[in-house]
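Let us walk through a complete example step by step. Step one is to write down the protein sequence. Step two is to encode the small molecule, magnesium ion, as a SMILES string so that its atoms and bonds are unambiguous. Step three, shown after the inputs, is the structure prediction itself.
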Amino acid sequence: MTAPTRERVTNKAADDDPNESPTVAPVSSKPARRRLNKRPWVIAGIGLIVPAVLLALWHWSTAVTGYFPIYQLPPPASVWDAGIDLIQRGELWTHVAISTQRVLIGFLVGATLGLAVGAIVGLSNLSSSLLSPMIGALRAVPSLAWIPLLLIWLKIGEDSKVTLIAIGAFFPVYTTVSAALRHVDPHLSEVGRAFGLRGFTLFRTIQLPAVIPSVISGLRLAMAQSWLFLVAAELAGASMGLGFLLTDSQNNGRVDRVLLAIVLLALLGVLTDIVIGFVEKRLLRKWS
Amino acid sequence: MAPASLDVQSRAAAVQVRGLHRTFSTAAGEKHVLSNVSLDVPAGGIVALIGASGCGKSTLLREICGLNTPEAGAVLIGDSPVTGIDPRCAVAFQEPRLLPWRTIAENIALGLPSGVDKETGKARVAELISLVGLVEAANLRPRQISGGMAQRASLARALARNPAVLLLDEPFGALDALTRLRMQDLLLDIHAAEPTTIVMVTHDVEEALYLADDIALLAPAPNSHGAHVASLTTVPGSRPRSRTDAVLAHLRQEMLEGLGVSRHH
Ligand SMILES: Nc1ncnc2c1ncn2[C@@H]1O[C@H](COP(=O)(O)OP(=O)(O)O)[C@@H](O)[C@H]1O
Ligand SMILES: [Mg+2]
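Step three: the predicted structure of the complex.
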């Protein structure tokens, strides 16, 4: 049994009868969507297999056989206990909250600037010639290279960290948005112009919707980059946050807490990615 | 000229193309496409443009609506010259060019003249959708419909303007034979009900003979690489014409020869 698929409808040849019902599309979209709705759970389930196996191996090689000494690799249970301990002291929440706050603010600032500058560079040839070489050069600077400068200028405070994260979030958004705008089908922009659209209305009606999928993938990259830059910022000097938890625990020889911080970073990264993925799905349903 | 065109000056506007030149600069150098093109279309008239592929038909349409500016010559709509994209024109491009993120109804609404109020616009779109036979597809996206349906949507979008000048670039090219005949009649009905001046590009000589008052053949100008109006033929009789007229059959032969199709072909 082959379910009618979208592709078959898309490539339907130029046959036509004005009274003919419009192909199988509306009927076929239903089973297709139901199938897709079910899939995420199956996919998520499959995706959990490998982590579960690794966790079991970890447990087996530490708690069961003692192959790894505890000061090198503590068993999963002690990492869990370390987490409970930090929660009871009321510290864990502070670390997670401050890190998340930094990431979100930095991401918002960087992504907004990335959208704005990306739009300017993508839409105007003049500003592209003017700005893109400079921005390209700045993009080539490795993230860690900014840290000394930011610390000198902004001191070890929230500003320097948020700025570094904003730098990290800026480039993926800037790059994808400016490139996508430059590649909007000129035929479509011409339709807009031919029907009297100009300036911002043209942008809102044609270019913006055309680049929405790219904008979202840029935002997704930017979010991942933000967590990356967060750790760089917090490693360089902080008194709170997951990056601080990492360095502090390293100095105290608390491998369990180091592992805890790593697991938490992984979970938070996945969580924010899922949120963006959810927004993506909704937007793409509307805009593509 | 068809008598219908006499009492329609209210909305339709005459189009005059005067000594138009157009050159494209390409990687291979200057390409002369239009060379001294002149064409007169009275208000409410229908002119068909025929000519070999790549001879500049689409380019001429773009000049008329102001999407391109000529190096020399001018286009007049009514009494005023075309200086930029002209709001009195509506174009149905050679490709349907529908916005993929909009439904068919929303795509057609893009053609509505600016400042039309919501209810009027909605009613107009609904009317056009049923005229071009897309009722069932109104809420589908372009990727969910066939090429021919997309082309009809593009035609409806141009008609939504209720334009003074309607420019159609091979509007029925992707339609099957039967739908093509229906759409030709539909175009004539709309033209009779809401008079507009039509310049349409077509490859189909029969279609030109059935629809047009005049047929302009675009062909290479002597001593130039560009094309000009090599002949302008007035189609005898008034619309609606019979599709099997003997006089027209003779003209058809002439036209085909003008296009370089030999008698024995
Ligand atoms: N923007 C452009 N840049 C360069 N050459 C063009 C451009 N538009 C059209 N041409 C050239 O002009 C010629 C006429 O094109 P067109 O008007 O599309 O022909 P057709 O009669 O098939 O509609 C073609 O040779 C095409 O390559
Ligand atoms: Mg063409």
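Step four is interpretation. The helical segments of chain B are 57-65, 104-109, 118-131, 147-159, 177-193, 205-211, 246-258.
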